[in-house]
C-alpha cells in the first residue's frame, strides 16, 4: 500500500500537495518506489505554483503530465507529494517567504540549499525514495551537497523539460536527488533520452583553482576522501580550469540567466502583479535591467568557456571539484550582503557545467565540522550514463 505522507516532519511540502498518490505501473525498474516533485512540474488535473501562492491561484490545472514525471510513473514509481522550492527558483539558499523554510534533516540549524529545497528535505528525511527537481544554476547540486544526497544535473537537453516551468532555458535541466547511487542510476537511466557517449573513466582532473577558493574544512575532507579512494580511482591530476577568468565566467552565467528570465518568468509576474518575497523581488528587478548588449557579450564569454571545458572533457575524463565552497549557512540569516556573497561564491563552483551544458553529479563524502559535504564530478557531453556508473562505483568506496 502506497499513501501520501500524513505528516510533514521536515516541512517539505507545499499546501497544495497531493491528497492521494498517483500510482505507478505495477512492474518496472522502479516498482514499489516513491518519489516527489518540485513545485514546477505539470501534473494532469493539478495546478503548479512555482513557489508562490499568487502564481498558484493564477494558474490553470495542467492538461498533461510532464514527460519526466510520466516516465517515472511508467517505470513503476508512485508520486506522493509536491515539494516547496525557492520562489520562482531564483535562489540557491532553500528559503521561501510564503511557504516557509524546509528543514535540513542532516543539519537542522542550517539551510537545505535550493531551489529544490523541499525535494532534498523530503529525500533526506525519508519521506520518499527519490525526488525530481530542476537545476539551472545549482538547484539540484547545492541541496544534494547540503543534505548529504546524490544529485544529478544531466547534459543539457538529455532529460525532457516539457511541462516544467522555464526559467533560463539555455541552462534549465531536470535533475534527480536520491539517498543512494544505485537508485539515482536507475531513475536517471529511465529519464535520459537520446544516445549517450559512454566511456570508462580513466582520467580525473582536480580543478585546483576552484578548490583552493573553498573553505578549509571542505578542502580537507575532499583530500581525505580522494586519498582514501586512491587505490580504486585514476591518479588525480591538478590543473587550473578557469584561473582568474572565473569571475568573468560567473558573471556571464548570471547575466545570461537574467536576460532569459525577461522572456520567461518576468512577463507572467508583471502581468499578474505577483507579490514577491525579499531578495527575490530585488533579483527580478536586477534581471529586468540587463541589456541585450550585455547578454550578447556574456554569450561570447560562454562560447569560450564551452570550448575550453569540452577540450578538457574528452570521453573518459572528469573534472573534480567540491560541489559547494562552504558548508550550509545557518537558518534565519537575513537576506543581505552576507547571503549575496554566499550566492556569488557558490556560483563560482556551479557555473561551469551550466555554461557548457555538461552533466555533473554530486556525491556525499561525509561531514566537515558537522555539516554534510558533496564532491562533484563533471563529465563530457553525453557522458551521463558513465557518470552514473562512476558514482555507483564510488559509493562502494565511501
Describe the structure.
The chain has 398 residues and is of the alpha/beta class. It has one domain: Amidase signature (AS) enzymes (Alpha-Beta Complex). The chain is built from 13 helices and ten strands. The protein has helices at residues 53-58, 67-74, 117-124, 141-147, 181-191, 208-212, 216-229, 246-261, 265-271, 280-288, 292-312, 337-356, 384-395; strands at residues 34-38, 78-83, 130-135, 150-153, 173-178, 203-207, 236-239, 317-322, 360-368, 371-378. The chain has a ten-stranded mixed β-sheet, sandwiched between helices. A hairpin with a 2-residue loop joins strand 9 (360-368) and strand 10 (371-378). Helix 8 (246-261) crosses helix 10, helix 8 (246-261) crosses helix 11 and helix 8 packs across helix 12. It is globular and about 50 Å long. The two termini are 33 Å apart.
Instruction: Look at the structure and give the mean pLDDT.
Output: 97
Query: What is the SS-derived class?
Result: alpha/beta
Poorly predicted runs of 5 or more residues: none
Query: What is the CATH architecture term?
Result: Alpha-Beta Complex
Which fold does the CATH topology refer to?
Amidase signature (AS) enzymes
**Content of β-strand:** 5-15%
The tally of strands reads: 10
Number of helices: 13
Amino acid at each position: 500500500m502506497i499513501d501520501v505522507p500524513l505528516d510533514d516532519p521536515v516541512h517539505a511540502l507545499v499546501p497544495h500537495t497531493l491528497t492521494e498518490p498517483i500510482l505507478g505501473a505495477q512492474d518496472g525498474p522502479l516498482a514499489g518506489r516513491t518519489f516527489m516533485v518540485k513545485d514546477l512540474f505539470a501534473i494532469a488535473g493539478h495546478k503548479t505554483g512555482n513557489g508562490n501562492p499568487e502564481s498558484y491561484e493564477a494558474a490553470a490545472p495542467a492538461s498533461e503530465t510532464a514527460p519526466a514525471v510520466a516516465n517515472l510513473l511508467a517505470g513503476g514509481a508512485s508520486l506522493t507529494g509536491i515539494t516547496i522550492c525557492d520562489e520562482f527558483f531564483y535562489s540557491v539558499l532553500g528559503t521561501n517567504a510564503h511557504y516557509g523554510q524546509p528543514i535540513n534533516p542532516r543539519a537542522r540549524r542550517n539551510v537545505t540549499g535550493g531551489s529544490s529545497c523541499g525535494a532534498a528535505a523530503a529525500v533526506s528525511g525519508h519521506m520518499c525514495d527519490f525526488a525530481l527537481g530542476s537545476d539551472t544554476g545549482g538547484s539540484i547540486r547545492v541541496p544534494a551537497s547540503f543534505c548529504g544526497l546524490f544529485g544529478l544535473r544531466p547534459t543539457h537537453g538529455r532529460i525532457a523539460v516539457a511541462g516544467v516551468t522555464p526559467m533560463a532555458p539555455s541552462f534549465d535541466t531536470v535533475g534527480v536527488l536520491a539517498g543512494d547511487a544505485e537508485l539515482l542510476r536507475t531513475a536517471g537511466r529511465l529519464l535520459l533520452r537520446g544516445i549517450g557517449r559512454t566511456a570508462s573513466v580513466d582520467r580525473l582532473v582536480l580543478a585546483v583553482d576552484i578548490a583552493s577558493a573553498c573553505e578549509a574544512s571542505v578542502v580537507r575532507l575532499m583530500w581525505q576522501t580522494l586519498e582514501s579512494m586512491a587505490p580504486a580511482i585514476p591518479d588525480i591530476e591538478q590543473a587550473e580550469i578557469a584561473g582568474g577568468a572565473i569571475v568573468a565566467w560567473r558573471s556571464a552565467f548570471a547575466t545570461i540567466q537574467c536576460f532569459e528570465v525577461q522572456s520567461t518568468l518576468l512577463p507572467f509576474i508583471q502581468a499578474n502583479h505577483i507579490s514577491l518575497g525579499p531578495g527575490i523581488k530585488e533579483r527580478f528587478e536586477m534581471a529586468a535591467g540587463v541589456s541585450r548588449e550585455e547578454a550578447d557579450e556574456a554569450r561570447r564569454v560562454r562560447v569560450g568557456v564551452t570550448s575550453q571545458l569540452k577540450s578538457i572533457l574528452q570521453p573518459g575524463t572528469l573534472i573534480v571539484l567540491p560541489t559547494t565552497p562552504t558548508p550550509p549557512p545557518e537558518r534565519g540569516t537575513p537576506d543581505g550582503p552576507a547571503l549575496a556573497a554566499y550566492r556569488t561564491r557558490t556560483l563560482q563552483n556551479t557555473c561551469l557545467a551550466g555554461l557548457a551544458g555538461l552533466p555533473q553529479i554530486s556525491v556525499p563524502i561525509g561531514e566537515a565540522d558537522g555539516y554534510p559535504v558533496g564532491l562533484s564530478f563533471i563529465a563530457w557531453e553525453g557522458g551521463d550514463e558513465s557518470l552514473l556508473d562512476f558514482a555507483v562505483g564510488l559509493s562502494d568506496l565511501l
